[in-house]
Amino acid sequence: MPAASSFAIDVPDRLLRRAREGERAALEQLCRWFERPVFTLALRLTGDRDEAQDVLQETMLKAIAKLGEFRGDAPFWGWLRQIAVNEALMQLRRRRRLDESLDDDGFEPVDASPPPSAAADAAALWRALEKLPAATRAVLWLYHAEGHTHEEIAGLMQRTPSFSKSQLARGGRRLRALLEPQSEHATEVQHA
């Protein structure tokens, strides 16, 4: 099961009821409340602002269309986040970005350790993530940030669990390599 999000907006039942009834003001309010977190998630997965904007629009349209399916037995953000993740991955597939830079030659042992300590600097981490292939970045994000298992990632990305494991291992190595020069440079600057 995906990790619980630290982001939470309490959506009143009354607002959800009004939105399900098609009240425009209620639908607009839901969209405004969740616009930023959906866009941020989409940006993390796609690495592209235009694609993230497309994902945001598709997510909101799909959520409005499927609002009657939301049972309310889990937080609204969890339900909406899953729609956003699916839309982001579909966006990547549509753009054929998943296959562009993959050289999947088989399973490699998984290194499921979290990113290196240099990743504490969120800006440096994001710059490094942007340099990774889209599929690798998506696997890293889904595994570490969203808390999905390899089996869940495989299902979401229409791949095998070994694909998820190999991308996580490769992505972790690439991410560390991208972050290490920055931490060495920072150490040199501190000692200068």
TrEMBL record:
Keyword Ribonucleoprotein in annotation: no
InterPro entries assigned: RNA_pol_sigma-70-like, RNA_pol_sigma-70_dom, RNA_pol_sigma70_r2, RNA_pol_sigma70_r4_t2, RNA_pol_sigma_r2, RNA_pol_sigma_r3/r4-like, WH-like_DNA-bd_sf
Keywords attached to this entry: Sigma factor, Transcription, Transcription regulation
Domain of life: Bacteria
Record bears the keyword Hydrolase: no
Coiled-coil residue spans: none
Any GO molecular function: DNA binding
Domain RNA polymerase sigma factor 70 region 4 type: 124-172
Any one GO biological process: DNA-templated transcription initiation
One family name in Pfam for this protein: Sigma70_r2
Domain RNA polymerase sigma-70 region: 35-97
Family stated for the protein in its record: Belongs to the sigma-70 factor family. ECF subfamily.
PANTHER family: RNA POLYMERASE ECF-TYPE SIGMA FACTO, RNA POLYMERASE SIGMA-70 FACTOR ECF SUBFAMILY
Protein known as: RNA polymerase sigma factor
Organism: Pseudoluteimonas lycopersici
